[in-house]
Inverse folding.
């Protein structure tokens, strides 16, 4: 039976209560569109009450602790000198490119041929896919990322390995089989458009809404699909969109790519128009990059309520385009925007480190982004881009308890530097700018501490935590 999935509810069933206590920052609205001071909640000494993976309440500790006699020091994790935030959301990343991050390269199209395609060809081997998925999840959870919108590759093995690892942590993750039936090596190419559509839909039926997993229809980008394949992908997306299935692809990343799309699809007005024509532009569509946009394309994305993934470290590394966040957020036709690492084009797995690059990319366009804006993009903005803003991305009653805990003193120097800051957002800006690799102390997924920097076993699966 089809079910409308604007909201993914997991109702508490009366399980044990747990708590997290400390300084909380969370977002409730878009600071690019309304007064930024009204977009967040900051509670200096907060208690987050969690039951069955869901947040029951987030309020000042002293004002609510008496309402929860079941909570005491045995089941409340207390964090000092830290900021507790919603888990970060990575709106665009290729887990299968983890083995090639940091490859010396050139522009996008050369880089795809030289590094990406040979690496992705290896994922027919399930054991290889399993190993990479394991490494990838550890990198994300170490950095406090709890949801990612992920490219797998051509083969079912790449999708199965990813979702199997996600199930072990109970993370809310999105991936799917990548559609690609032309302009790439035979070792990676779909056998036919029809075969790829059949495989994608069978994986969708296998994984979508299984626990917290979400399936995505993923044409790599317009140049690597025939028109028939884009049409079939669009049909699957439209058949399942109301069940919460996502469409994920690349758009307007580089000049060479844009010119190639014009050559392959001369009958369409724009790159966005190619996807739109095949039913791929709709409310759960996520477009990575969107750097070289025409005004009509922004209008199309706005009207359809699509999300864009801003991937600054990748754009700088490949020297392609630059995303204009203020242009995307034009109040006349705002577009949903989140942050993507785009590993392996991106150079690290950390969302705060992407914020550091996003700030610089914006400054090249002579307009800054405050810490309020950037941490919004990293959390609630990402949830909006994925159309999951009623489920994740905020620390609020009824939301899934996916949480990151940033250390305000991750190094001797940062600890010293922090004495010269005033507000919490001054501190967060320093953290994102200095962008240390070790600043996330702990990561909670549906209320379970799956990563703890100070625990002997840093990473634990849910089955190990439940022992
Ligand atoms: Zn990408």
């Amino acid at each position: 039976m089809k079910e409308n999935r604007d909201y993914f509810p997991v109702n508490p069933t009366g399980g044990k209560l747990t708590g997290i206590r400390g300084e909380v920052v969370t977002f409730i609205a878009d600071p690019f569109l309304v007064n930024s001071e009204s977009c967040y909640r900051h509670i200096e000494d907060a208690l987050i009450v969690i039951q069955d993976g869901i947040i029951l309440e987030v309020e000042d500790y002293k004002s609510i602790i008496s309402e929860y006699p079941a909570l005491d020091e045995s089941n409340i994790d207390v964090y000092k000198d830290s900021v507790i935030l919603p888990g970060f959301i990575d709106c665009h990343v290729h887990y299968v490119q983890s083995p090639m991050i940091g490859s010396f390269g050139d522009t996008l199209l050369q880089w795809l041929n030289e590094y990406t395609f040979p690496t992705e060809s290896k994922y027919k081997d399930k054991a290889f896919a399993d190993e990479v998925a394991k490494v990838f999840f550890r990198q994300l959870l170490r950095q406090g990322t709890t949801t990612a919108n992920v490219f797998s590759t051509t083969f079912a093995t790449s999708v199965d390995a990813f979702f199997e690892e996600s199930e072990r942590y109970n993370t809310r993750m999105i991936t799917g089989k990548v559609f690609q039936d032309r302009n790439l090596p035979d070792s990676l190419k779909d056998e036919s458009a029809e075969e790829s559509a059949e495989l994608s839909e069978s994986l969708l039926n296998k994984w979508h809404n299984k626990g917290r997993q979400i399936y995505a229809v993923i044409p790599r980008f317009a140049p690597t699909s025939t028109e028939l394949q884009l049409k079939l992908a669009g049909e699957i997306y439209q058949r399942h969109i109301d069940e919460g299935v996502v469409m994920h692809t690349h758009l307007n990343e580089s000049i060479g790519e844009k010119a190639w799309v014009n050559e392959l699809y001369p009958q369409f007005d724009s790159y966005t128009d190619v996807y739109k024509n095949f039913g791929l532009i709709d409310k759960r569509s996520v477009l990575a990059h969107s750097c070289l946009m025409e005004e009509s394309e922004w209008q199309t994305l706005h009207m359809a309520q699509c999300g864009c993934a801003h991937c600054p470290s990748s754009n700088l590394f490949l020297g392609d385009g630059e995303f204009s966040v203020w242009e995307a957020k034009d109040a006349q036709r705002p577009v949903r925007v989140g942050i993507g690492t785009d590993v392996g084009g991106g150079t690290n797995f950390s969302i705060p480190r992407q914020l550091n690059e996003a700030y610089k990319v914006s400054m090249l366009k002579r307009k800054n982004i405050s810490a309020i804006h950037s941490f919004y993009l990293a959390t609630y903005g990402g949830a909006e881009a994925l159309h999951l803003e009623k489920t994740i991305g905020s620390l609020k009653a009824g939301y899934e308890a996916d949480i990151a805990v940033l250390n305000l003193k991750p190094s001797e120097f940062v600890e010293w530097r922090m004495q010269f800051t005033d507000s919490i957002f001054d501190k967060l800006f320093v953290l994102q700018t200095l962008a240390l690799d070790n600043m996330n102390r702990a990561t909670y997924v549906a209320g379970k501490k799956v990563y703890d920097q100070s625990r002997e076993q840093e990473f634990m699966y849910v089955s190990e935590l439940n022992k």
